[in-house]
Amino acid sequence: MDAANEVRIDRVVDARGSFCPGPLMELIRAVKESQVGDVLAVLSTESGSARDVPAWAQKAGHEFIGVFEKDGYNEIVVRKAR
Amino acid sequence: MAEEKLSMVVFSGTVDKLYPVAIMASGAVALGQRVDIFLTFWGLMSLRKGAPQQNQQVSKDFEAMGPEMMRIMKEKNVPSWLDTLRTAKEIGDVRVHACAMTMDLFDLKQEDLEDVVDDITGVAQFLTEAQGGTTLFI
After folding, report:
1. Model confidence over B3-14: pLDDT tens digits?
2. Where are the domains of chain A?
3. Measured between alpha carbons, how far is B56 from A26 in angstroms, rounded to an integer?
4. Contact B29/B91 with Cβ under 8 angstroms?
5. Which of A11, A12, A16, A20 is catalytic?
6. What CATH number did the domain enclosing B71 receive?
7. Contact between residue B96 and residue B39 where contact means Cβ atoms under 8 Å apart
8. CB neighbour list of residue A57: distance below 8 Å, 6 or more residues apart
9. B53 shares contact with chain A (CB less than 8 Å)
């Protein structure tokens, strides 16, 4: 399954190679700079992101779209909701 | 809902314990929590100017693994605990306090410390801030 088939991604944050909590922190920074409604994908090779991003999205009030397994990394997609 | 907050009393000054401090702070700000870090004794000594760049010490119980741990972190480009803490400060509300008693004991002034330290705080002041939240001793 591919996020690209589901939604249009406005911004990709490539955090591959970063360790926990690096990808989440990079995503938060990018979300802050984005407009409400924007869809952001963070690419991560570390195992915490797939768990941390949905927890953060729920807490921060953003829409968690999903974790999509790619070749050797995860693409984790959220929509900025506020 | 009351403000959620995480407070940490950072007593240890070894790299392996300073990492969890920085990572816990990052996680907390990601969830919108306020973070107060109270540096005392070796935790405070580890933030003297220039100390973080030199510090290679790990806990006594895993001392033998120290050089290997540092090598792996370097090889995998793990950001330093200090840079991780700086990122947490950029993202959210993280306040780093130096213990007044330790400052007096070692004749330290705030300008002797890395700029990540916000102020000098007394124990009662810190506990007042920490009240009602989660407090960790590291």
Report:
1. 799 999 999 999
2. 3-66
3. 27
4. yes
5. A20
6. 3.40.1260.10
7. yes
8. A63, A64, A78
9. no
Query: In the block, which residue shows the tokens 């929590």?
Result: B33
A chain contacts of residue B87, beta-carbon cutoff 8 Å: 25
User: What is the C-alpha separation between B102 and B40, in angstroms, rounded?
Assistant: 6
Positions in chain B whose pLDDT score sits under 50 = 1
- Tell whether A68 is within 8 A of chain B (Cβ): no
Nearest residue to B53 (alpha-carbon basis) of B28, B80, B93: B80
Confirm or reject CATH 3.30.110.40 for domain A3-66, answering yes or no.
yes
Task: Quote the CA–CA distance of A69 and B116 in Å, as a whole number.
Answer: 37
B78/A19 CB distance under 8 A: yes
Number of domains comprising chain B: 1
In terms of Cβ atoms closer than 10 Å to its own Cβ (0-12, 13-18, 19+), residue A42 is buried
Structural domain of residue B133, as residue ranges? Answer: 5-137
| Closest of B93, B91, B97 to residue B118, by C-alpha | B97
Active site residue A81: no
> Residue written as tokens 């330093």?
B80
Q: CA-CA distance, A54 to B101, in Å (whole number)?
A: 42
Find all residues with CB under 8 Å of B98, minimum gap 6, and list them: B39, B44, B47, B108, B110, B113, B117, B119, B120, B121
Residue-wise pLDDT tens digits, A37-66 = 999 999 999 988 998 999 999 999 999 999
